[in-house]
């Protein structure tokens, strides 16, 4: 859902953008998890 939209947005930046997106999603999950 929302994560896929974020990945699609960062996909334009290429590999670096995708890695950044995954990192942001990981950080977001960690904060929301607590």
Describe the protein in words.
Helix content is 85%, strand content 0%. 0% of the residues are buried. The chain has one domain (2-33). Helix 1 (2-11) runs antiparallel to helix 2. It has helices spanning 2-11, 15-33. By secondary structure, it is mainly α. The chain is built from two helices and no strands.
Q: What is the total tally of β strands?
A: 0
Question: Can you give the helix content as a percent range?
Answer: over 70%
Strand content: under 5%
Helix/strand order: HH
Global geometry: flat
Counting DSSP H or I runs of 4 or more residues, the number of helices is 2
Radius of gyration from CA coordinates: 10 Å
Average pLDDT level: 79
Give the biggest sheet: none
Total count of domains: 1
Q: Uncertain segments of ≥5 residues (pLDDT<50)? A: none
Distance between the termini: 22 Å
Which structural class do the helices and strands define? mainly alpha
Summarize the structure.
With 34 residues, the protein is an all-alpha fold.
Give the arrangement of secondary structure elements.
Blueprint: H1 2-11, H2 15-33
Task: Please supply descriptive tags for the structure shown above.
flat; about 35 residues; mainly alpha; 2 helices; about 85% helix
